[in-house]
Amino acid sequence: MKTPDALIEDLRSRGQRATPQRLAVFEALWDNHEHPTAEAVWANVVEHMPTVSLRTVYSVLGELVEAGEISHVDLGGGAGRFDPNNVEHHHLVCDRCASITDVQVDHAGVHPTPGDAFRITGTHIVFRGVCADCDD
C-alpha cells in the first residue's frame, strides 16, 4: 500500500476530495500487519475522529480495494480482513487467537489438475495451526 500522503495525492490527481475521514482510514492501514477487519479499522479511526461512521470506513476500504491498494481476504472464521501488503504472499492463521502472519511460499511445485473446464488465475494458500504464543 502506498503511504497515506501518496494516496491523498492520487485522490487529488483524479479530482476526488482528500477528506479527513479518508486520511484517517489510510493512516489506520499504513504499516498495519494485523490484517484488520473493517470494524478494527473503524475502532482505530474513531479514537481520533469519534463521528466517523462504520459505513464511511467500509466505503473507503472499498475504494482502496477497487484501486488495488489493499486486498480483501477471507481467511475463514468470520469477518473478512483487509491486507495492505501488495506483495504476493500467503498466510498463517492461528486457530486459537486468530492471529494472521504473512508468509512467502514456494508453490512452484504445486500443480492442481482442475481439468479443461477451469483456468487458474491466482493462488492463495492459508496455513492453519497454533502460533508460538498460544502453544504454551
What structural keywords apply?
two-stranded antiparallel sheet, 2 domains, 136 residues, three-stranded mixed β-sheet, Arc Repressor Mutant, subunit A, alpha+beta, 14% strand, Dna Ligase, domain 1, 4 helices
Gross morphology is globular
Q: How many β-strand runs?
A: 5
Spatial sequence of strands, sheet with the most strands: 4-3-5
Task: Detail the poorly predicted runs.
Answer: none
CATH architecture tag of the largest domain: Orthogonal Bundle
Helicity range? 25-40%
CATH superfamily of the largest domain: Winged helix-like DNA-binding domain superfamily/Winged helix DNA-binding domain
H and E order: HHHHEEEEE
CATH topology of the largest domain: Arc Repressor Mutant, subunit A
> What fraction strand?
5-15%
- Tell me the structural class: alpha+beta
How large is the radius of gyration? Answer: 17 Å
Cα separation of the termini: 34 Å
How many helical elements?
Answer: 4
CATH class of the largest domain: Mainly Alpha
How many domains, as an integer? 2
What's the mean pLDDT score?
88
The main β sheet shows up as:
3 strands, mixed
Give a quick summary of the entry.
By secondary structure, the chain is of the alpha+beta class. It has helices at residues 4-13, 20-29, 38-46, 54-66; strands spanning 71-73, 81-83, 90-94, 100-103, 126-129.
